[in-house]
Amino acid sequence: MPVCRLRDRGQEIARLILEKNGYVFICGDGNHMAKDVNRVLLEVLSEFGDMTIERAAEVLAEMKLRRRYLLDIWS
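Predicted structure:
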């Protein structure tokens, strides 16, 4: 799903992550695409999860620890 589509469906994505314990898998270019997706996820969680960007970063970090946010990226 391209980054703009992530933003377009931000409310649904935030709900799936925060309320339904959803998983995020990112596979692809680590130099650009993965960074862009991470940035948009932070924005989406902040906006629709009613939290700061810093708190959203903590949520994603916790998801990584619990293997709910997985990256298969290359440069």
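Summary: The mean pLDDT is 95.
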